[in-house]
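Technical note accompanying the year-one report. For the benefit of new consortium partners, we illustrate the data format agreed upon in the data management plan: each record pairs a sequence with a structure-token string. No post-processing was applied to the example shown here.
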Amino acid sequence: MRIVDSLSTFRIVGGPIDGRSDDNGASSSASTCSRSVGTDRVQDGPRIPAHVWRETFNGLCAARPPTDVGTISAPTLIIWGDRDELLSRDQEEDLARAIPRSRLIVYEDTGHLVLWEQPQRVARDLAAFVESLPERTR
């Protein structure tokens, strides 16, 4: 059986932690959401229309932190790159403290797009995390 088949729920969540926003509800914190990053990310996926990237980025900036919406009770793996220019280490540590049974892994020399920058390592770490869970929580 593949690991993915044994999971009852798998969800990737994200969003600004500090909650500061401008009049439009978008984050105004440079450390949380820098508007210039949206343009840079468009170059990462040239087949995706620019308006999709902009709306996705605006949604991320406007999103309520997952821990504000409700309590996350599932075991949670948080992976953060130490060169992330959107979310700070303090924000990730706050998120880890807010989620019981969470584990924070920090990738050196990695930015915000951890899944794109380190896909094999993410797969290994995720598989190891899932394998470390008691059978009843998978």
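Partners are asked to follow this layout when depositing records. The beta strands are 76-81, 102-107.
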